[in-house]
């Protein structure tokens, strides 16, 4: 089979499978695992946890920024979105959150950790993404880590 025909068959298979060559298809977003933090009742199926740390992911792994929607588009162009985190039993310490863009160059993503929540249990945060793109995020307390990948999208017109 010649290479031109192979490419045509591959392209047709991608179209039939609903695949796209755009950035969204290239971002291996993390699926939630439904693991609930201690004492929480499921309000969505989008929880992600490992028995030590937990968060709630945005639907379909996409954090979408649009006018009138959740989140904040800051004057410098960075994109801030609230993410809840929980520390499990025996996990005590300051939560730290960092991230790196997987599909392009960008400064590091940083977590803004709200004060007043203490060093155990629930922690309110905002993740500040310098740009849209595919982001790998790591939350940690001491040696405990929770990682996920999410697609950050700036909707048209914003």
In words, what does this structure look like?
This protein has 158 residues and is mostly beta strands. Helix content is 12%, strand content 39%.
Jot down its keywords.
2 helices; 39% strand; 12% helix; 158 residues; disordered N terminus; Immunoglobulin-like; ten-stranded mixed β-sheet; single chain; mainly beta
Under CATH at level 1, the class stands as Mainly Beta
CATH architecture: Sandwich
The major pleated sheet works out as: 10 strands, mixed
User: How many domains would you count in the coordinates?
Assistant: 1
Spans of at least 5 consecutive residues whose pLDDT stays below 50 are: 1-24
The name CATH uses for the topology is Immunoglobulin-like
The value of Rg in angstroms is 18 Å
**Averaged pLDDT, please?**
86
The helix content is: 10-25%
Number of strands: 10
Class per helix and strand makeup:
mainly beta
Shape: globular
- Within CATH, the superfamily carries the name Immunoglobulins
Count of individual helical segments: 2
Distance linking N and C termini: 47 Å
Please report which band the strand proportion falls in: under 5%, 5-15%, 15-25%, 25-35%, 35-45% or over 45%: 35-45%
* Helix and strand run: HHEEEEEEEEEE
